[in-house]
């Protein structure tokens, strides 16, 4: 059954007004349209077991308020690293807001976090693999994986990158597959370029 013409016009005008109200808000916060993928729950850093999901929410909220997109959040060797796409002024503002927000959160929510140093930076060009896209792009390349504690009697493993899944970083060690638990992996990086003898650069 069709709606009366007058009612149809009212509905159309209401939807037009609603769109006009929502569109500017979405334009101001493009980061909300493409949220960062949910983190691997098996890869929560030691000491952050209970606080990590809420910490990620805080980072995303503060970044979205500045119209920034968060590329990665990681904790290794006492450093809480937040990688976000934006200019220098934007990153400085995000660093300041996160410092204040996290201090208030710890003080008022009875949350105990391990000692950390906050670092907000742009992804840029780095030897460290962070995103799933990095792992896909450098599959088959030689890498060095540094762990937070010994695994297979070593804290550093070198091999050919096979990829990573929800639980492991996979390396090929001379034909043998090594599965490194992601919760132990501090970083995976490409080896630094070696300078040949006589190379002036």
TrEMBL record:
Transmembrane segments: none annotated. The keyword Oxidoreductase does not apply. GO terms for biological process: ribosomal small subunit assembly; translation. One of its GO terms (cellular component) is cytosol. HAMAP family: RimP (MF_01077). InterPro entries: Ribosome_maturation_RimP, RimP_C, RimP_C_sf, RimP_N_sf. Keywords: Signal. This is Ribosome maturation factor RimP. Residues 1-27 form the signal peptide.
């Amino acid at each position: 059954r069709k709606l009366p013409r007058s009612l149809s016009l009212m509905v159309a005008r209401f939807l037009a007004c609603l769109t006009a109200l929502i569109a500017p808000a979405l334009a101001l916060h493009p980061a909300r349209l493409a949220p960062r993928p949910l983190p691997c729950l098996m890869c929560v850093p030691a000491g952050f077991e209970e606080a990590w999901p809420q910490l990620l929410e805080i980072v995303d909220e503060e970044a979205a308020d500045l119209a920034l997109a968060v590329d990665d959040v990681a904790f290794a060797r006492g450093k809480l690293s937040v990688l976000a796409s934006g200019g220098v002024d934007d990153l400085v503002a995000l660093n300041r807001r996160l410092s204040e927000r996290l201090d208030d959160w710890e003080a008022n929510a009875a949350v105990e976090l391990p000692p950390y140093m906050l670092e907000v930076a742009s992804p840029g060009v780095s030897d460290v693999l962070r995103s799933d896209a990095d792992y896909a792009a450098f599959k088959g390349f030689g890498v060095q994986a540094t762990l937070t504690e010994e695994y297979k009697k070593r804290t550093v493993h070198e091999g050919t990158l096979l990829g990573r899944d929800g639980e492991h970083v996979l390396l090929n060690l001379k034909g043998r597959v090594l599965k490194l638990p992601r919760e132990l992996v501090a970083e995976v990086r490409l080896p630094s370029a070696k300078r040949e003898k006589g190379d002036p650069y």
